Amino acid sequence: MSGASGTNPSGGGPGAPQPQITISGTGALVPLLGVAGITIAAVLGFIETQPPYVPNEGVMAAVPHSPSEFPAVFAHDEALDGLDAGIPDGGLVPTAMPPFSDGVFPCMDCHGEPDQPPNPLRRKLEDAHTKIVLKHDEEHRWCLDCHDLKDRDQLKLASGELVPFTESYKLCGQCHGPQYRDWKVGIHGKRTGYWNGTKRYLLCVNCHWPHDPHFAPLKPLPPPVRPQYLRAEHRPGPEVKVKSEGHAAKPEGSVEARAAESKDATKDVKKEEAGHGK
Amino acid sequence: MASEHAGAAFPHDPNGGPDEAENASRREFMVQLGLAASAVLAGCTPEQREEFLRKQFKELTPEEITERVAHLKEDVKRKWDKDATISAKPALPGVVFGYGLDLSRCIGCRRCEYACVKENNQSRDPQLHWIRVLEMEKEKGIDLEGANPYYDPATVPDPDHFYVPVACQQCENSPCARVCPVGATYKEPDGIVVIDYDWCIGCRSCMAACPYGARHFNWATPSIPKDELNTNMHVLGNRPRPKGVVEKCTWCVQRTREGRYPACVEICPVGARKFGNLNDPTSEISRILKDKRVFVLKSELRTKPKFFYFYGL
Questions:
Q1: Quick one: DSSP state of residue A227?
Q2: For a surface tag, which of A85, B161, B219, B263 has the fewest beta carbons within 10 Å of its beta carbon?
Q3: How many Cβ atoms are within 10 Å of B133's Cβ, its own excluded?
Q4: At CA B263, angle to CA B260 and CA B269, rounded to 5?
Q5: 3-state DSSP percent of chain B in helix, strand and coil, to 5
């Protein structure tokens, strides 16, 4: 299937003009009922003409990390237009360049200089790339196991074959076979775009920094409010709401507190039963 | 016709008699009632008449759907002063949606919960979240009773816990649709359980029936800030809901029927959420069902959810 556009072809047009029925004639025939009708109509009319609804603007603004931090998710991804769906059989995946630090790519801008002869000796880097601390099987590997000695703009597979950075998944897949297999069919890793059309594939390195691939911990967005505080105006300050810290927080009346109570009750019943048994 | 009948019933009473008078007054009452009803309806705007005499969404003709959509648009325009695109697109032929969530990846960051709120125009005050991320202890495994949706550590994931986001499981055998006394909630051909928000009477039977806590009631008129209103809407999906109706996840019907992924899939920073067509053997969800260890919540209830949890590792 081709990529559907984000627009809505079936969104309805303006409604057909409605016949306007006036109330005057009916009211003259049956005065009392006419008056009643007018009254009800007036009430309905009042509902219709009451001032426009003013939403509570401040609530979301007060929440840190609101989704407005990531508006791109909701935007139409133009880069997807025209791309083919799925993975071509050759294993080539349409991906963008990995997220390089500013100014490092192309690498040969520096490494190609005559005063920068390639040095194949394993060593600690002291002049450049000092921020990179390898935490990725560092006992057994160093830079030139993945980067090519001569062509720094490409990566090197175990076979010696060079691959561009946009195909770095081949390099990762040499060791991480199950993940590579799952990634190719969309099970591992993130896909965005169209479930029945063009998808945006991310490279492994879009999520995992190759020199230290574990995810860094993340601050969670705020927890939902408890049922008794659904209304902002009913919410007490945080010092009242949370009586203890961290995971152990179990304010009175909470689900956990009630669960604990019921557990205690169950224990009592069991004790009683045990007593009867004796 | 009514007067002939009255005359035939009492032919020998020259004065009409009490029965005749009673009948006459009843006739008069019925006439007045009819006139009153027409007077009330005549006094209403066409929109109010439509609202009063409306039919269920699934019974509407294409013209009536267009009309309903136009009224909804006017509603949005009046309340938020914004032009909405409201679709009524039916299910895509041959498509049954399925959803996968990789429990070995989810880190409990709640991005999906808030992306859902924004995409689906959920009320900010009173707060209403369709997705609930449950924190569970690794030692205990899946333990819904001991789960905590209110966890708030400095960072996630916590090493001793794992996270199970729960929203509507889009059951094939949906208890909610079965108990609805007015047929306002039902399963669409693509497997999404929807609510006709113009037909729901707010009895909340479905909330009692749902074993997953996936249905939520609008206790008050939902409030959505104007600048955060998502104007890309679907009649059965994220259109603004009135006070007093139940609402639920529709797998972003406004997006998925256009081929896009649901908002929670797009936002998930670890790619734990997977979505696709169960009838397509090459879809992500089909491959997950084929290759991975999959389970559904509360399978013993035989609700047959189409929301599958799996372990990708």
A1: G
A2: B219
A3: 27
A4: 115
A5: 35, 15, 50
Stretch 138-197 of chain A: residues touching chain B, C-beta under 8 Å: 182, 185-197
Select the more confidently predicted residue: B2 or A207.
A207
A3 lies within 8 A of chain B by CB: yes
- Model pLDDT for residues B265-276, shown as the tens digit of each residue: 988 989 999 999
* DSSP structure class, residue A86: S
Q: CB-based burial of residue B48 (10 Å sphere; 0-12 exposed, 13-18 middle, 19+ buried)? A: middle
Element (H, E) at B295: strand B293-295
Please write the tens of the pLDDT for every residue from A209-259. Answer: 899 888 888 889 999 999 888 888 887 765 444 444 444 444 444 444 444
pLDDT tens digit string along A47-63? 333 333 333 333 222 33
Report which secondary-structure segment, H or E, holds B293: strand B293-295
Asked if B148 is an interface residue toward chain A (Cβ–Cβ < 8 A), one would say: yes
Position B257, amino acid: R
Please say if the pLDDT value at position B228 is more than 80: yes
Whole-model pTM? 0.72
Whether residue A196 contacts residue B259, with contact meaning beta carbons closer than 8 Å, is answered with yes
Per-residue DSSP letter, A247: G
β-pairing verdict for B307-311 and B293-295: antiparallel
Separation between Cα atoms, residue A123 and residue A127, nearest integer Å: 11
Q: Give whole-number Cα distances, A148 to A99, A143, A175, in Å.
A: 19, 9, 18
Q: Is the dihedral of CA B58, B63, B69, B75 positive or negative?
A: negative
Give B271-301 pLDDT, tens digit per residue. 999 999 999 999 999 999 999 999 999 999 9
Cα separations in angstroms, B254 against A114, A191, B88, B159, B223: 58, 19, 9, 37, 20
Residue in A7, A190, A220 nearest the CB of B156 = A220
Residue keyed to tokens 């707010």: B202
- Going A32 to A34 to A35 to A40, the CA torsion angle's sign is positive
Name the residue in chain A with its Cα closest to that of B230. A74
Instruction: For residue range B141-174, list pLDDT tens digits in order.
Output: 999 999 999 999 999 999 999 999 999 999 999 9
Q: Convert the pLDDT of each residue in B73-82 to its tens digit.
A: 999 999 999 9
- Here the tokens at position B235 are 């009649």
Residues 19-38 of A with CB under 8 A from B: 19-23, 26-27, 29-30, 33-34, 36-38
